[in-house]
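Help wanted!
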Amino acid sequence: MNLFFLFSFINGVIAIIFGLFVYFKNRKDLTNIFFFLMNLGIAIWSFSYCQWLLMEVEGNALFWSRMLNFGATLIPILYLHWVFCLLNLVKKKKGIIITGYLITFVFLLFSFTPYYIKSVEPVLSFNYWPQAGLLYIFFLFLGYLGLVGYTLYQLFKTRKITFGEKKTQIDYIILASIIGFGGGATNFPLMFGVTLFPPFGQPLIAVYVVILTLAITRYHLFGIRFILTEILIGTIGLTLAIQTLTAPSFGLKIFGFALLTAFAFMAYLLIKYTYLEIRRRQEIEKIDRAKSEFISIASHQLRTPLTAIKGYISMILEGVYGKLSGKQTKPLENVYYSNERLIKLVNDLLNLSRLDAGKIEFSPEPTSLEEMVSGIVEELRINAEKKGLYMKMIKPSESLPKIMADQDKIRQVVLNIVDNAIKYTKEGGITIKLEKINDEERIRISDTGEGMTKHEIDSLFQMFSRATAGTQLHAEGAGLGLYVAKRFIEMHGGKIWVESPGKGKGSTFIIGLPIHLDPKLLKAKTKTITKQPDNFF
Amino acid sequence: MAKKILLIEDEKVLAEMYQEKLTEAGFEVIWTMEAKDGLELARKEKPDLVLLDILLPRENGVFFLNQLRKDPQTSSIPVVVFSNYDDPETKKKSARLGAEEYLIKTDYTPQEIVEKIKGYLK
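Answered by r_m:
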């Protein structure tokens, strides 16, 4: 017995067990049926491989080598059919499937003739390695490369328009396919007398089956790690057991047994702790996911009625439903601005939940702060003027260079601060100044409003914090905006702070952004939320 | 002749509101709640622009965009996505599938959306 025998045997057993496991999960599901059939092909290949390795007579070895190739020939078309079931492509790609079966049928018809496998020859450590006949070359190109390649192409294509869990599932299938069929392909060169490397097909196909099973039974990534740990431990254990049993002397047998016992004990501990760790992490992830999903769905659901209120009120104010009397305008405007506050709160909560979950995207691009700030000033000027406030922008004498910044986030921060400045200033106005200081571009937003004490300044950027002005009746907001702003600026490696000479003397918010973004910040780009609605595939 | 807008929106209240505003702004509006019906209407009616929501019953807005781009009859129709589903990955996919813009509905009044549409139809 050698390792190839061992791997083939394990491979066949794994293929049968996992195939049956998936099949019995839902016997009516075509995807499960074809997964089982594909695994049956793998099992025929693997068990015939075991038989073939045991053969000592050339004729018998030839028969079993043809038998194993019979199994191998079945795999690509059953793989294609299974993947097409999974991707709902069966109806659309009926022609391809039928053609695939016809080609496979022709190969199977010839699989026990010299046209397919012409002979067996000694290759590397194998006494009887099968040698490819003429038709086998066609199988390699049409069956193996053609069918498998086309299936992979469809997987990649579907992946592009797929989201969330289904996308992860496709990723696993692609990974497994590359490992499995890549490994399987290492058997072929030897069939043409090319002996550059040994055949890795058997162990890698076992990995292929395990990953695919996990992918379609929707196990979590940690589940895969757990199974892979078990496979690794099992393989080492079996190797040690074989070495112990076949050891040439009694002393070595005793040594091997002691080693095996120690290994078994450590393996038990490793599996136990891996399992506990996985469970713990799964629990944490479950809570995290539930939280993110709740916020994401809740904010979407909240936004729908807010959109309707905003839309209809704005249309009433525009006079779409007739001219308003002076008395009607003010209350409607109040409803409109109250609704805007709610919209802002929902946005802040959504941002906050994403920031806390580390799932907010950072997409820096060349940005002209000058252009961005001018746009914001123009946008908010009307609000300032309505309150009788001035709005002034002081540009630098020399144009500032573009910097790498996430435009949406910086815009949101500046908009938020200028908007607050308008809200908290009763008379005077707001001055926005752009300047370059050393390696930094700064935006200074000064107002002639309430001003702040030192204590207020210290706690301003904390969550749910508002300065005294913000606790008065006319002030708005939950105190989340500045906290989110700080986090956004820090994402850029920049800083945000506030200066105020004291109560009644106004305040100045300063945003400093580095001209050259630290490349580490780009590498540390956080994940995006992948949660998608259920109908996304 | 009035420009034709295909509105794909499953929230009845919002659909009525946008339909009203767009009609008032001089557009001809065709409305559907589902992506598949939308594809059929796009082929049949050849709209000048599609205003597309993302979260729809059964097939979603990304599916619609993907199918629309595949069909040579409809592949060049401009699409403006508008949704309250604020997801970076969905935004990227929409951009990759040629959506002109991905608007968050709560950030825009119907009038502002009309202005955006006018800009794209110039």
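OP: Thanks! One thing I noticed: Chain B has a mean pLDDT of 92.
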